Amino acid sequence: MIIHGFFVLALVCSISLALQDDISSESKKAEQLYIKLFKRQRAEQLDAIKNFQKVSNGKNERKSMLQLMSEKIFQVIQKSRASIESSPFIPGISEFPLDRDIQDLLSNILENTALFSEIVLRFPDIAASLLKSNNEWNITLQWSIAFCNQMKYLLDSSTIKLLSLASQELNYIPRDPDFLNPYRKDKKPQVTLGDLKSIKKKKKKIIKKGPRLSTHVEL
Ligand SMILES: *[C@@H]1O[C@H](CO)[C@@H](O)[C@H](O)[C@H]1NC(C)=O
């Protein structure tokens, strides 16, 4: 009886192990396919954004179109974030999901984060002003870039670079000493957040000295 039970148990274990292997290799296959499709999707996205750069003219027109695009982008990211966080999928831990719905949520987040990162690099001043007036977007973007970084294995190297440059442009992460936004028209070295802070400090010091001097004079 005990031996019989043992056999059954061993059998069940080996079946479930085999099943897991199957799922694992299926997941690997699906992952490879996803990587290919994502790359293609990004190429199309790049064409679209280059087209937008060509056809949109005038800063105001660009800004209002980018405002509309951003509204859509962040709406999708925020909705997908809520859904993926209530799904069994855990970024950085779960295997590539076979569930199509979860794959779609992943695509929504990865593609829209990449798209907004393109906007950040190509239209840095407009993007900064949009983020400044929509703090929720700024917070969402930091979350979604971190999410993409956890899913790096699905991204091609140019998308990984894009995310890193956008994070530096927005000072989410410290800028590399040789950081350069390749799309900025003036290729002069840029003022970093650190520089700005030290300029502000210097200004404050000068202001503080002023009144003291005048009190001294009054005495
Ligand atoms: C975005 O948020 C960070 C803090 O999380 C802040 O330092 C930065 O100034 C914000 N960016 C904009 C454009 O408002």
UniProtKB/TrEMBL annotation:
Record keywords, A-Z: Signal
Signal peptide: 1-18
Alphabetized PANTHER family for the sequence: COILED-COIL DOMAIN-CONTAINING PROTEIN 134 (PTHR14735)
Domain of life: Eukaryota
Record organism: Callosobruchus maculatus (Southern cowpea weevil)
Record carries keyword Signal: yes
Protein name, per record: Coiled-coil domain-containing protein 134
UniProt xrefs under InterPro entries: CC134
